[in-house]
């Protein structure tokens, strides 16, 4: 079974500003309450192969590995635990007034159905909080 949770927001800031906020993953807890801490384990800036330890309220800690990266436009990272694999996708598109940001969490595996039943409301809220927090932070900087 697979589940996806998606949120798209329009951001009144240019893509390069949104990108600078997005790839500073250790800064996420400052602008979204959906993250308690994010520690970039791999030295240097976020890139393909980077590893991050993520702690979120009410969820077990996860270790994510960046498995997709297009500078200035998108990145995805994945984490696996027994029975479930999670992939977070983050995409930025330029618009006439700034940017469109899409945040998606895909979950698959034998436990995805159970996790969806038990945590769907919380996961939807966290995906929305991440998108809205990114919007606020990028607009404040932009």
Number of domains: 1
Rough outline: globular
Q: Name the helix and strand elements from N-terminus to C-terminus, one letter apiece.
A: EHHEEEEEEH
Which CATH class is shown?
A: Alpha Beta
Keywords:
single chain, 142 residues, alpha+beta, Alpha-D-Glucose-1,6-Bisphosphate, Chain A, domain 4, seven-stranded antiparallel sheet, 3 helices
Protein topology:
Layout: E1 2-11, H1 15-22, H2 28-31, E2 37-40, E3 51-55, E4 62-70, E5 74-81, E6 84-95, E7 98-108, H3 112-141
Antiparallel strand pairs: 1-7, 2-3, 3-4, 4-5, 5-6, 6-7
Helix pairs in contact: 1-3
Task: Please summarize what this structure is.
By secondary structure, the chain is α+β, with helices and mostly antiparallel strands.
Structure description:
The protein is 30% helix and 42% strand. It has 142 residues and is an alpha+beta fold. It has a single domain (2-141), classed as START domain (Alpha-D-Glucose-1,6-Bisphosphate, Chain A, domain 4). A seven-stranded antiparallel sheet has the order 1-7-6-5-4-3-2, with helices on one face. The mean pLDDT is 95.
